[in-house]
Write a structure and sequence with these properties.
Layout: H1 11-32, H2 36-62, H3 68-90, H4 97-121, H5 130-148, H6 154-181
Helix pairs in contact: 1-2, 1-3, 2-3, 2-5, 3-4, 3-5, 4-6, 5-6
């Protein structure tokens, strides 16, 4: 990967740095949360991360700040955030281990397939597909709700966990077919 030093300061890349820096902040806030207000602060931190993720690509395209660094950094920030939040949720909702496992194996599959396609066919996944973006948006919304409402009724926790699991499986299947076409 080659990039120019000026790309380090591109606004979309700065947003990715901020998302990565918010991960330990979120972990600290969430694991120390004892009151509804504490959970609200952790959820706001997560929402800021999600919003910056939503806008970095738009800003990159609008301001012509698309860079190799940003193309690599954005999904890394996404994956680190998803895993950190999902694992934190397991401390309160053991059932959330299901989407954590699906997410883990889906990302391993995608990483291995991307490396395999690059090595054997000199092709790689061009970016997130729409079904992947929708899955990510639903995952983030569900996780924010779970963080925000620690006293949520158990049935809703199960429904949100099932929704996350189904979305992740659908995205995994979608990427399976994308990689077959490469």
């Amino acid at each position: 990967m080659r990039f120019e030093k000026k790309e380090l300061l591109y606004v979309p890349n700065i947003l990715s740095y901020i998302r990565i820096l918010l991960i330990p902040v979120f972990i600290y806030l969430y694991l120390r949360a004892e009151t509804t207000k504490d959970c609200l602060i952790a959820a706001i931190t997560l929402a800021i991360s999600a919003l910056s993720d939503m806008f970095d690509g738009k800003i990159a395209r609008k301001w012509n700040q698309i860079s190799e660094l940003g193309i690599a950094l954005d999904p890394i920030a996404d994956k680190l955030t998803h895993f950190a939040v999902a694992v934190c949720l397991c401390t309160r909702y053991m059932i959330f281990i299901i989407p954590v496992c699906i997410l883990f194996f889906k990302e391993i599959y995608m990483g291995v397939m991307n490396l395999y396609k690059m090595k054997t066919k000199n092709k790689k996944l061009g970016g997130a597909e729409m079904f992947g973006k929708v899955s990510t948006a639903i995952l983030f919304c569900a996780m924010i709700l779970l963080v925000l409402m620690p006293e949520m009724p158990e049935i809703l926790v199960y429904l949100l966990t099932a929704l996350c699991s189904v979305c992740l499986v659908v995205a995994w299947i979608g990427y399976f077919f994308v990689f077959r076409k490469l």
